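Case study.
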Amino acid sequence: MRRVLPPGVPEPDFDLALQAFAAVVGRQWVFTTEEDRHSYMDPMSVGDPAEHEPSGAVAPQSVEEIQGILKAANQYRIPLWPVSMGKNFAYGTAAPRMRGTMVLDLKRLNRVLEVNAELAYAVVEPGVSFFDLHRHLQGRKLWMSGPSHSWGSVMGNALEHGVGYTLYGVHAEAICGMEVLLANGEIFRTGMGAVDGSREWQTYKQGYGPIWDGAFTQANFGIVTKMGIWLMPEPEGMASVTISLPNEEDLAVLVDTLRPLRLNDTINSTYTIANGVRHVFRVGSRDRLYQGRDHLPKQVIADQLKKQGDGWWSVTFNLFDRPEGLDIRLRVIREAFDRIPGSRMVIERWRQGEPLAAWMRQDVGLGPLGVIDWHGGPGGHTDFGPVMAAVGSRVREVYDLVYRRFVEHGIDCFVGMFGLGSRSIVMVADLIYNKNDEEMTGRARALFRTLTRDAARIGVGIYRAHISFMDDGADMYRHNDHALMRFNERIKDCLDPNGILAPGKQGIWPKSLRTQRSPRGRREP
Ligand code: ADP
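After joint prediction, the assembly is written out as follows.
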C-alpha cells in the first residue's frame, strides 16, 4: 500500500501514533487507505491535489477523545489539520496545507448545545452543518445567516470569515464565546466563559483583558470545540432590493452611492455587487456563448446581457425592518439611485406571517455550487479576494487591475463584491477552470500569484486563501519586514512547541517546519 507520511516522521513512529489514535477513537475512526486519503483531498484543486495529500484522518467523537489524540500527536510529532465539516469551498475543502498532515475530522462532534430564544443565540459544536442548524431552528422564530450554499458547517464558515445575508451576515462578527483546546490538551473558554457559572458567555464579547475569539479564526493556535453564534429574531418585515446599472464605468458611482446608505444604516445588511461576467454565467455552460480559450470577449458579454435584459453591474441586498420602516428605507434608496442614469430597481417584500420565499435565503441548498462546471466539468475553483475601502475610485482601481490580469491569463473574470461592514468591500474574483486541463490550471495558478504581487504593490491584501496560496497571501502582509508574521510565529511556538496544529495555516509555520514555507516574493507559477 502506498503511504504518505508527515515530513520528518519515521514510519515506525507513524505506526505507533496510528495505534495510539485507534486506542482513543476505535480502529474504525482512523482512516489511512488510499481511498480514505482521497476522500479528504480537494476535488477542485488548482494544480496537483497530491501537494496536499494527507497521511490519513482521525475522527474523534468528544473533547476527551481529541485530548487523547493530541497527547499521541505531541509524542510522535504528528501534524493535525482540524476541520469541522471539511467543506471549505474554494479554499481546499478538507485537505491540509502541508502534505502528510493528518486530518482531524471533527464532524462527529455535531450537537447544537443550546438555542436561546430570549437572547437569540446558539452554541454549536464543530460538526453542526447549516442544514442541521436550519432544521434545529424550525418553528423557533430565530433566523440563521447562511452563505450562498449550505455545504459546510456553521463553525468552519465563521472561523474562516464567511459571509451571509442577514443583519448577522459577517459571520466572524457574530461569534460570541468559544471553548478552545490548546495543543497541550488544555481546555479554556474565551470572554465571559472564563467566569465559572457565567450565563453571559454568549452575550458579551469583550470579557476581561484581551479579546481572544478572533485569535482562533483563520489560525492554528487551538482547536475550537464550542462556539456561540448570534442569531436574528424573525423580523417584522423584510425587503430584497436588486439594482442594476447599465455600463461598466458605473462601478465607482455605484460604490459611492452605496457607502453613505450603508454607513447611516439605511441599508442594514451586507450587499453583493456582481459584474457582467457573473450575470452571463446564468447560461450554465460556457460553450453556449463562446468556444475560444481566451477570456469571454466584451462584445459576447454585452450581447448576452442585452438578451437577458441585465445591466453590466447589479447590487443586491436585504433590508430588515417593520413595514413602515421599510417604506422609508426604500424611498431613500430609490432617491439616491434615481440620480444614476439607466439604473433600475427591483424589490421583493415580505411581512411577518407570510410564507417564506426563495429570495429570502432562509432555506438551505447546494444550487450555487453548480457554477464550477462552467467549462463543462469536472470543474475546479478558487478565488482571489482583495479587501478594498468602500470608495469608488479605490474599488475601480483594484477591479481594473484584476480584470486586466484575468483577460491576460484567459480566465473569465467572474466577480462578486461583498459590502461587509459599512467601510470595506471584499472582492471575490472567482477562478473557474476545468481541473483536468493542466494548461488551464497552470494559467489559473499563474494568475493568482500575479494578482497577489500586483495587489500588494498598491497596498491591498486578501481576506482568505486556498491552501495552495496561503503563503502568497501572508506575504502581502509584510509591513516592517513581516512583523505581523513574526508575532504570529512567536505565539505559535509558545502555544504549540511541537508544531502539531495545522502547520502552514494562513502562512503561520511552527519553528520545526518553517523550511516548508514557499519562498517569499517568488516569481514562478
Ligand atoms: P466548512 O466545512 O464549514 O466549510 P471546514 O470545516 O472546512 O469548513 O473549516 C474551514 C477551515 O477552518 C479548516 O480548514 C480549518 O483550518 C479551520 N477550522 C475548522 N474547524 C476548526 C476548529 N474546530 N478549530 C480550529 N480550526 C478549525
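Observations recorded in class. The chain has four domains: 11-105, 112-233, 237-464, 471-521. The radius of gyration is 23 Å. We will return to this complex in the next lecture.
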